[in-house]
Task: structure prediction
Amino acid sequence: MAIKQCVPPFAAIAKAEPAIKGARNPDLTAVQDFLIRFGYLEEGKCQAAELDSPTSEALIKYQEYYNLSPTGDFTQATRDQMTKGRCGMPDMIRGIEFTAECAWERFRLTFAFDSETGDIRGSAELQAVRNAFRTWAVASPLVFSEITPDENPDILIGWRPARDFDHNMGGGVLAHADFPPGCSIIASRLPLPLHFDDSEHVWTIGAAANAFDVETVALHEIGHLLGLGHSRVAGSVMFPSVNDNFIMRTLTADDIFGIRTLYPFT
Ligand SMILES: [Zn+2]
Ligand SMILES: [Zn+2]
Result:
């Protein structure tokens, strides 16, 4: 098994001291970068390293999203939430909550694998992703079939370096995917990606300290590939952050409502 240099999620934010509106501190730049990266703050709209009004307003949106006290300050609770491992897809797009608008126009979709992780013996990680597809298939009229990468799959799954060519996962992002054609923000054509960061995190099957369960993360990312955005409902599969040493392999009422809105059973 390869030894990895695991990076705690968002280490630069973890070092930043709590700060109130008006504060100036170079560590705040990492907080602002985070808010920009996940859609809460528009790039170029704030003064770097200063907790100015746009930054404070973005913090309020973030705090409301995560059910924290909406003070507009960089609080300890905000820092704790920001330093959890999370999905690379934004929560907001230009400050507006992303909501699912695009669904596939067909119910039969194909997927393929182009790489594995060295963290797991054999190919159990592939089976974990297949299980996650099955969980969504059971809850919807969708049908997924596995093909090979050279058969033009709709979705191509793999373990990638953190600085992936199509989306930078560096810093604390566990994985990324994309939204269906018409709403895609990463891929300009098929296949859509389902990419796990294989540089900064340890992947596992089941709950293990300092490692992430493949099926748990795959279940979340497949939700995006089907058209779901992030959910504010804590404990739902589509909530943006996830803990290590944790499994979440079943859909909640919130997730099922979302998928059936996009793909009703007729
Ligand atoms: Zn996500
Ligand atoms: Zn990627």
Summary: The domain at 108-262 is CATH 3.40.390.10 (Collagenase (Catalytic Domain)).
